[in-house]
Amino acid sequence: MDKLASILLAFPPGLNLFFNINDNAVYDGTVKAHLAKLSKLLREHNTDLVAHGPNLLAVLDPEVNSLSYLAVLHSLIVPGIRESTPRDLVLEKLVIFLTTFDARQSRYAGRHLLDVFHAAGSGQFLPPSVAVHVLSTAILRLDPTGSMLTSSHILLAKLAYQTNNVIPPVLEVFDKDIVFYPNMANHKEPGYLCDLTLSPPSYISPRTGLTNALRTLSVLEYDLLCGMAHCSMREWAKAYTAFERVVTFPTREGGVSKVMVEVYKKWVLVSLLAKGKLAELPSYTGAQATKLYGSSAKLYTEVATVFVGDDAGVLKAEVEKSLQQWEDDGNMGLIQEVLAAYQKWQVLRLQQIYSKVSLSEIRQQTTSAKTGAKLRENEDVEALVQNMIISGMLNGVIEKNDDGTVFLTFLPSAIKLSEEQFARELANTAFRLKELHPIFKETKERLGTSKEYIKYVIKEDKRVEKNDTDPTLGFEAHVDDEDLMGGVVATG
User: Fold this and answer.
1) Distance between CA atoms of 10 and 290, rounded to whole angstroms?
2) pTM greater than the 0.85 cutoff
3) Using an 8 Å Cβ cutoff, are 315 and 342 in contact?
């Protein structure tokens, strides 16, 4: 065991004066030399590694000796934990590793790291509540920007939603803006894998082993699950955004898949919940796609039409005549939310007329779509309004006059910030822009090496004397359709 430990502890070299952790060339060469020793160890002494694995993990520091720790851990849990291995101890070490590993080192052992990610997210070893927590943490340790969609994201989304464990660490991953996908075209090869200035797709790819390739269906499934997860938290605006990514997904010839149609139905309902009306599809949605959605989801758009009307009974009847359809589509829960939201949006629309309105007046001017009748008591109205205020749907306050009349005062949506608050918001915005800079740079480089972009610029350059507009404007509307992972794609 001592011989094994000496090899495993050899990286990083510690007090070696010739090792400069900030020198990418030195770091890269030292890591690769250590990897060669680890590979030999795994080939020739794997049985010993398994036998002494628990003791070796006690000697290694997962944050410092991440590569060696990963090699031992991988031997213990892939393809499964052996009966002779202390299961609880190994799983404890697994959790510790995933929440503390050095992402820079681990880039060099992509396939092993991905195996461990997938082992954690498989549901075979850890309780789901623990698995989604550590997998979320690990994903953002590997890519703090969260801008790269990986196969680990898909695994996390499935596990979190299917086991009802949509917890804050999971939502932190879901809330990141995805910009990059595996195997996107025009990414330059990294000089050194350890370079901390690399954009995520430069070191996370099927080639490095840190993600599997993704099919189009997997990308749609991820956004669908994100949307459903946000629905389960009643975060309608975020669910709306996630579903919209599916609905507007770029396809060849502007067609739509069955998944896209089913998500469009959910998008219509969530649009009512988030915006109080059926929102228009973004302008970049293909005309053919828009037409297909309209013909495939007539029942849903009919509900949306009566939702903005003044007759709750009509909405109730419209919903009740198609109960089996909502059930078959898996949208009964959202339909019930729409019925419950109808009266709330009636209350919100009153602020277009009043700055202050009594609860008795609200009771007279609004109707519940769940019952088709007005609320019986002012106390019921007060409970409804208080719920809206607590949830953040309504910016207002309930007050009482000297004569005992209870009324709702609508507050302005924009609150004047103090100088300190304004400075804090300004600093946060600057920080976010700084975080986005590498993404902008990477996207610009990709676009600049795209054949379609180059052809477009040359074509526009011939007309530059007649047209003073930026030649990049409208580019996406003119490029040819390509595969999702191959570059820029027109929506249709």
Assistant:
1) 60
2) no
3) yes
